[in-house]
Design a protein that fits this description.
Helix content is about 55%, strand content about 10%. With about 180 residues, it is of the alpha+beta class. A 4-stranded antiparallel β-sheet has the order 1-2-3-4.
Length: about 180
């Protein structure tokens, strides 16, 4: 990959921050709208069996697993967010990685905000979920969850494709012979 296609670390950091703040804002705004306009735990059909809205509070993870250890999810979300910030500071140079990590950080921040500041209390707050797609899965989720799931799939693809944080590919690095030192 040429240097022209690589991001400067500061540019990558700014991109990650802008994407994260944007996703966080959209997530929290949609949760605000859901809380203001949806009846609690009542199905509101939007588009047949494709899309329903169903406002609920989730103390657990996906499918309400781990409801008794909400504080653990808070720690995991915070640690994942810190890891992404550290990666950004250490020098992400790939546009794809900056895009994926920014969107992932925004999703993490959305649910972490709920865990930290919503009822029943600090670090054990319940996440606001309101999107229900009965044809796809029995889970009820939110905008942050959508970004977390899709970007984690993207992370897996980037890793499988061998794309490094600096934008180079492992395959290309393996094909480039090491310079031979002259004696």
């Amino acid at each position: 990959m040429s240097d022209r296609k690589r991001l400067r670390p500061s540019t990558a950091g700014i991109l990650i921050a802008i994407l994260a703040v944007t996703v966080l804002a959209v997530d929290q705004f949609t949760k605000f709208l859901a809380l203001q306009n949806l009846p609690y735990q009542q199905t509101v059909p939007v588009w047949g069996d494709v899309l329903h809205l169903y406002l609920t509070r989730n103390s657990g993870a996906a499918f309400s697993l781990g409801e008794g250890v909400t504080w653990l999810f808070t720690i995991v979300l915070a640690a994942a967010g810190v890891l992404i910030v550290v990666l950004a500071v250490r020098g992400i140079r790939s546009r794809l990685w900056a895009l994926v990590l920014g969107l992932l950080l925004g999703g993490i921040a959305g649910n972490l905000t709920d865990r930290l500041f919503r009822e029943p209390g600090f670090a054990v707050g319940h996440v606001i979920d309101f999107i229900y797609t009965p044809w796809m899965m029995p889970a009820i989720y939110n905008v942050a969850d959508i970004f977390i799931v899709t970007t984690m799939i993207s992370v897996a693809l980037l890793v499988l494709l061998g794309i490094r944080f600096d934008g180079t590919r492992e395959k290309d690095a393996a094909e480039t012979p090491e310079p031979v030192a002259e004696v």
